[in-house]
Amino acid sequence: AYANGIADPCMGNYENAESCKGEVEPFTNASSTISRVPIFVFAFTCHQNIFPIVNEISSLSQSRLNIVISCSIGLALVIFSVVALEGYRTYGSSVRGDILLNYPENNQVTFLRICIAFMLTLHYPLQLDPSRRCITSLVKVIMNWWRVKKQPKVGNVALMKLPGDHSGGLEMKLEETLNPDETLKEGNSYRENSQNDEKQQKVDADDKLFYIITFSFLSLSFILAMVVEDLGVILALVGATGSTLVSYVLPGLIYIKIYPHMDLSKLLAYLQLVVGIVIIPL
Questions:
Q1: Engineered SS bond to 94: which of 22, 43, 47, 250, CB 3.0-4.6 Å?
Q2: CB-CB contact of 57 with 65 (8 Å)
Q3: What is the 3-state secondary structure (H, E, C) of the chain?
Q4: Residue 7: its pLDDT value, please?
Q5: CA 219 to chain centre
Q6: CA–CA distance from 169 to each of 46, 108, 187, 198 (Å)?
Q7: Cβ neighbours for 52, distance < 8 A, ≥ 6 positions apart
Q8: What is the pLDDT of residue 218?
Q9: Do residues 170 and 152 lie in contact, with contact meaning Cβ atoms separated by under 8 Å?
Q10: pLDDT of 166-209, one tens digit each?
Q11: What phi, psi does 154 have (nearest 5°)?
C-alpha cells in the first residue's frame, strides 16, 4: 500500500518528504552490495533445523526431503523478495535495517508490529532448540574430557572409579562370608543400586544443564533486545559470523573431510569454504 501510493508513507508531512524518502537506484556500487551479503546469508540460514525435520518426515526419502527443502527455501525467497523490493521502492536509499522503523506511527503499522512480534515469539523456539542441543553436546564433551584428564593414571591408563566405590581406585574390599549365594545376591543388588544411582545422577545433571543453557539464552536475548536499537547491525553481525560458519564454512570442511574422492562435488566444497572465509570479514 505504501509502495504503490495507496497510503502515505510520510504521514502527509511533505516538508520532510526528502528526509523520509531517498533516491531509488536500479543499481548500486559493488562495495555497498557486498556489504549486505551477511544479511542475505542470515536470512537463509536454517540448516540447524534440518535434523528435527528429518526425524519428523513420514516415509523419509531423499526425494521427499528435497521437496521440503525446496518449498521452504522457495517460499522464504518469495516473501523476502517482496518485502525487500517494496520497502526499497517506498523509501529508497533512506530505508533502514528494520523497515518497521521507517513506517509511520498509526494503527495499521502498529497492528503489523504486533503480528511480527507474535511471529518472532513462535520463531524463537525453533532457533533455541537446535542451538541448545549443540551447546549441550559441546559442554558434555568438554566435561568428559576434563573428567578423564583429572583422573589419576598408571602409565598411560586412567584409573576409572567404579560406581559407589569410595576407595579411589579399582580395589574393592570383599567381605568374607560363609554363604556364597547370599554374597552373590548382595553383589547383584549392590550393582543394581549403583547403576540406578548413576542413572539418576546423570538425569539430574542433564536437567540442570538444560535449565542453565535455556536461562542463559533467554537472559542474553532479552538484554540484547533491550540494548540494541538497529536490528540491521545484529543481522549483519550474526550473518557474517555464525550464519556464515553454519552455511558455508562448516559444510565445506565436513564434506572435504569425509568425502575421499576428488571430483566436481569436492571442488565445489572447496569453493564453498573459500566463499565463507571471504564473507566473514565483510
A1: 22
A2: yes
A3: CCCCCCCCCCCCCHHHHHHHCCCCCCCCCHHHHHHCHHHHHHHCCCHHHHHHHHHHCCCCCHHHHHHHHHHHHHHHHHHHHHHHHHHHHHHHHHCCCCHHHCCCCCHHHHHHHHHHHHHHHHHHHHHHHHHHHHHHHHHHHHHHHHHHHHCCEECCEECCCCCCCCCCCCCCCCCCCCCHHHHHHHHHHHHHHHHHHHHHHHHHHHHHHHHHHHHHHHHHHHHHHHHCCCHHHHHHHHHHHHHHHHHHHHHHHHHHHHCCCCCHHHHHHHHHHHHHHHHCCC
A4: 67
A5: 16
A6: 48, 71, 18, 17
A7: 129, 130
A8: 87
A9: no
A10: 444 444 444 444 455 555 555 556 566 666 666 767 777 788 88
A11: -115, 105
Q: Residue 72 is placed in which grid cell?
A: 521452504
CB contact at 8 A, 213 and 206:
no
Residue 158 has φ and ψ, to the nearest 5°, of -80, 135
Residues written for the chain = 282
Tens digit of pLDDT for each residue in 47-69? 777 878 888 888 888 888 889 88
User: Left if phi > 0, otherwise alpha if psi is -120 to 50, otherwise beta: which for 132?
Assistant: alpha
Q: What is the pLDDT of residue 162?
A: 45
Q: What is the dihedral of CA 263, 269, 274, 279, to 10 degrees?
A: 150
- pLDDT given for residue 16 in this prediction: 56
| Confidence at residue 163, expressed as pLDDT on a 0 to 100 scale | 45
pLDDT at 117 over 80: yes
Quote the radius of gyration of the chain (alpha carbons, Å): 28
Does residue 121 have a pLDDT over 60? yes
**Dihedral, CA atoms, 120, 123, 128, 129, nearest 10 degrees?**
160
**Phi and psi dihedrals of 201, rounded to 5?**
-65, -40
Question: What is the pLDDT at residue 170?
Answer: 40
Please write the tens of the pLDDT for every residue from 257-280.
Answer: 898 888 888 899 899 889 888 877
